[in-house]
Design a protein that fits this description.
234 residues, alpha+beta, Structural Genomics Hypothetical 15.5 Kd Protein In mrcA-pckA Intergenic Region, Chain A, Alpha-Beta Plaits, 4-stranded antiparallel β-sheet, 25% strand, elongated, binds uracil
Length: 234
């Protein structure tokens, strides 16, 4: 995050007051007088204003309903990003916790707490993720059983972990996986000769996409949701 932004978020200064404070030599970063209000702060940087530590802003945890056509990245030259859906003042320092493909919709988590996102995404913790998939072909029982047991994805050396799959219609399924391999769900259905046409993430661990959120909308996670995801798969 930029120094002037941190000062305005955390110390309650306006952006121009923050810039003046830096130029007046009132701000130190990691023991050295700051000169550039726009300088980028490293993780855990210690910032003093008039010799007093600027209290750390509480970490932020958000859920967002990702529409198709925006990317799960902080910047992208070609497409809008999920961060572009947030007001500018909310974006600083946030990153996406577990990406979705450009065409995939549904639940995306964002935070500035790296330790928390690591816990949610660490493969060994096996935090479950549930998707609704619309398929090109009706799926038969043999294919469902193969997917439940685990299938070999193209170019990989290990089968997928066991997955839970529920058939909702001949060509619609709800699938829960506990890994996050590249294009995992699409490649799983490709491995049984089918194709995913639409994919939407409904749930990560104990947290479901809030039905009140229209595509593009977001809200802060509740304390219970943050704690539930922290414990997820533990
Ligand atoms: N599986 C996919 O194929 N794509 C996603 O975005 C998420 C899971």
């Amino acid at each position: 995050m930029r120094l002037d932004r941190l000062l305005s978020h955390v110390a309650g200064l306006t952006r121009s007051q923050a810039q003046r404070a830096v130029r007046a030599g009132r701000v130190a970063v990691d023991g050295a007088l700051a000169e550039d209000p726009a300088c980028k702060l490293g993780d855990g940087a210690e910032v003093l204003l008039d010799g007093v530590p600027v209290a750390k802003r509480a970490p932020r945890y958000l859920m967002l309903h990702k529409p198709a056509g925006c990317v799960c990245a902080t910047t992208d030259g070609r497409h809008p990003t999920v961060l572009d859906l947030l007001p500018e003042a909310e974006r600083g320092g946030l990153h996406v916790v577990g990406r979705l493909d450009l065409d995939v919709t549904g639940l995306v988590l964002l935070t500035d707490d790296g330790a928390w996102s690591h816990r949610v995404t660490a493969p060994r913790r096996k935090c479950p993720k549930t998707y609704l998939a619309g398929l090109a072909e009706a799926i038969d029982d043999a294919a469902l059983d193969a997917l439940r047991r685990g299938v070999r994805l193209r170019g990989e050396e290990e089968d997928t972990r066991a997955a839970a799959i529920e058939r909702l219609a001949p060509d619609h399924v709800r699938v829960t996986v506990t890994e996050g391999r590249y294009h995992q769900v699409k490649r799983m259905f490709a491995a049984v000769g089918n194709r995913v046409l639409t994919l939407r993430r409904e749930q990560v661990g104990p947290v479901a996409l809030d039905p009140a959120l229209a595509p593009g909308a977001w809200r802060a996670l509740t304390a219970d949701e943050v704690a539930g995801l922290r414990a997820c798969g533990a």
